[in-house]
Amino acid sequence: MIGWEDVYKVVVAVVPLYVALVLGYGSVRWWKIFTREQCDAINKLVCYFTLPLFTFEFTANIDPFKMNFLFIGADTLSKLIIVAVLALWAKCSRKGSYCWSITSFSLCTLTNSLVVGIPMVKPMYGPMGVDLVVQASVVQAIVWLTLLLIVLEFRRTGIEGANSTNLKPKASSISNVVIGDEVVERKDVEANTIVEDTSSRLPFFQLMKRVWLRFIVNPNSYGCVVGISWAFISNRWNLKMPSMVEGSVLIMSRAGTGTAMFSMGIFMALQEKVISCGPSLTVIGLVLKFIAGPAAMAISAIIVGLRGDVLRVAIIQAAVPQSITSFIFAKEYGLHAEVLSTAVIFGMIVSLPILIAYYVILEFIH
């Protein structure tokens, strides 16, 4: 049962993240230390150095031979359900959007389990719960964040390829133009904007080749793969990582979460408003995070036959607040970073009472 001491432990785990966030915000908004170009460079540092090493470090230290594959199956099924629903919405609805489907998938499924999930689950369900949350985090890093990276790279490469192969200046007769998913009036577009001919696309295989070449040189694409590979080897033959290698990894990986929050604070400072996505998108993001995600997990867990505390842990870990990595990727690839930053910031604030409420409700389920 959760007591005040356990609540305090969660607060202790979360407060340092907000310290890093405030320092990043103040460095731009109050103290004017960084320029916009330097802020972009900081995000690239986080995206391509600290986060890949952070991912490698925690995936390399699990025991893959002791994973609960029924639990992993439920987690996988829940994400596939969400993918199917979002794809159907994007294809069939007049308001559907593939770009918003990508962001909605992040909001529904990607969690900050290591920072918030473990301190919350440990007093609820003990070592068993912690072990399951770590397993979900590893699968998230290996499978779902990697797939998100591929989709984001596919989107950016397609846009860049189309822009470089078939660009045309705006004609004064154009009344509306398409930029990304948005249709805007001619008067709202700057005079020097170049508009993409949406009738032009790169050939599919050429596009996939460009995506693959970019993907294989991105450290995020293989940090988790190398980590889980070492986990299999080390646990199979009882090997330990050389101290020199371990020290080299830790010196950067320990800065992963802090620098990510610092980068988020910088991003907030560059926006006109703290809640840059607006209140309606903030509410939608919180609903997707704390209701849609756990609901999909509950359905999937029941389908695969989870029962007891394993079922409860599955639902609660799906309600853990937004992954910080999803914001870093969104910022780097220019897709709704303001929505994901708001989801991370406010999600961690409201997650404590929400997770406790889920815990109390689930105790009545046998």
UniProtKB/TrEMBL annotation:
InterPro entries, alphabetized: Auxin_eff_plant, Auxin_Efflux_Carrier, Mem_transp_PIN-like, Na+/solute_symporter_sf
Record-level GO cellular component terms: endoplasmic reticulum; plasma membrane
Protein topology in the membrane: Multi-pass membrane protein
Swiss-Prot/TrEMBL keywords: Auxin signaling pathway, Membrane, Transmembrane, Transmembrane helix, Transport
Domain of life: Eukaryota
Chief localization: membrane
Molecular function GO terms recorded: auxin efflux transmembrane transporter activity
Any GO BP annotation: auxin polar transport
TM annotation in the entry: 6-25, 45-62, 68-90, 97-120, 132-152, 211-231, 251-270, 282-304, 342-361
Subcellular location: Membrane
One Pfam family of this chain: Mem_trans
NCBIfam families: 2a69
Family affiliation: Belongs to the auxin efflux carrier (TC 2.A.69.1) family.
Protein role: May act as a component of the auxin efflux carrier.
The protein's name: Auxin efflux carrier component
Species this protein is from: Cicer arietinum
Protein encoded by which gene: LOC101504769
